[in-house]
Fold this protein.
Amino acid sequence: MKKFNVAVVGASGMVGGELLGLLESRRFPVGEFYPFNSGRKPAAVVFRGKKYACAAPSLEALKKADIAFFVSTDEVAAEFAPRLAAAGTWCVDDSAFFRLAPGVPLVIPEVNAAELKPSKKLIAGPNCTLTGAAVALAEIHRRFRITELRLATYQAVSGAGKAAMGELEEELKTYFKKGAVPKLKNGKFPRPIAFNLFPQVGGFDEDGNSGEENKVEAELKKIWGDKKIRISVTAVRVPVLRGHSLAAWFKVARPCSEGALKKELRRTAGLKFFEKPGDYPTPLEHGQRTEIVYAGRLRRARTAANEFQLWIVSDNLYKGAALNSVQIAEKIAKL
Ligand SMILES: NC(=O)c1ccc[n+]([C@@H]2O[C@H](COP(=O)([O-])OP(=O)(O)OC[C@H]3O[C@@H](n4cnc5c(N)ncnc54)[C@H](OP(=O)(O)O)[C@@H]3O)[C@@H](O)[C@H]2O)c1
């Protein structure tokens, strides 16, 4: 079997750690392995039982790879990925930088793998929040065309990286020691997150929408190849460590029964659909190292004809990031 030399930029981070584990567990044919971090502090990672020191990336070092995974920052992806892709290395980028760039495929393999082409070496993976909706509603959208989608998100702290997860833990420890949730200095979040939640993920635009809400709308439109669908989102950070949840309301263009929608959900790739009302996914049970998206509580909404509701849970670090990137690489390997 052909082997691929693999670089991981951001190997010491949260998504990087998951990515390494998935390359191993899914037996991706890795030849040489090159891990990178910021170089600001020494870091080592273990891959296939061997310890590797991480180094700061350079174009020359990255060029040794056939596939480079970017799981670091927008700036790092912007600096290296276009030049690396032009030099012939496949670049799979999990940052937000290229997701909406024309000519850069934004890919969830179960939904739009056909966008992957040998001529397009730079590929973006989507924001972790919309992945659940993009997968769960893909077949319903194809068959009945969703015209309007409303989402309320319940986003885990790991979606904001390793430091954010550490903050929740620190706040909880302080609470149990001193009886009050502290206000951390230079924290990742705009408010304390322990025993709390807040409707802010990213900064706000002049219309009052958050960065995350705008990303979900724009990226979902690109992935589904549908500019007309109307999408409205309230993104909320919750004190869950891992696993994003979504409450979705969607209107379909053609009248259809709940039974017809269930049929689509049952055959949707990468989705497990819970049919009984008392059976539903939760982030603790279905958002921890899970390779598929989960949905339940399908029902007719009472607000409009042809409107339905669905509850969706997915692992933000797996399907929302690392797993999606590895699945992209698995497709690339076959091109
Ligand atoms: N967390 C999620 O659920 C999620 C989902 C989808 C996409 N993403 C995206 O995935 C990327 C990584 O997120 P994360 O949650 O894993 O963040 P993280 O835990 O903060 O890790 C960031 C990684 O990037 C490295 N890094 C930072 N600056 C760098 C530089 N100048 N050069 C090279 N490496 C650098 C860090 O190295 P040091 O350890 O040396 O600082 C670390 O390895 C981000 O682009 C994020 O938007 C995350």
User: Anything to note?
Assistant: The chain has a mean pLDDT of 97. The first strand starts at residue 4 and ends at 9. The two ends are 14 Å apart (CA to CA).
